Amino acid sequence: xxEKINIEVVYGLPARQVLLALSVAxxxxxxxxxxxxxxxxxxxxxxxxxxSVGIFSRAAKLDQTLRDGDRIEIYRPLIADxxxxxxxxxxxAKAAGRADKTTGGRPKQRAEA
Length: 113
Prior knowledge:
Blueprint: E1 4-12, E2 17-25, H1 30-37, H2 39-42, E3 52-55, E4 58-60, E5 71-75, H3 82-95
Parallel strand pairs: 1-5
Antiparallel strand pairs: 1-2, 3-4, 3-5
């Protein structure tokens, strides 16, 4: 009989989170653990084979072997590109006069005499 390790699988939405504790065989990888956990029954939108995952907030690959006590976090896809959002914010700041039109930095304050 193979030795078991205890792990957790977690997924959350803004209004609802689920954390499932389970025992898996030593040597189990992340993908197998996600499938064994039954988290997809709670969140059908999760596609285990293409999920972005991490262990305790550190990015991990689906074929990574688990250790006792690991918490697998399944990440939601980004709804907006962070770089694109930053570019939009910078354009708004320039238009509002809160940023230099050329460099994007804060406008220089003029010394009053």
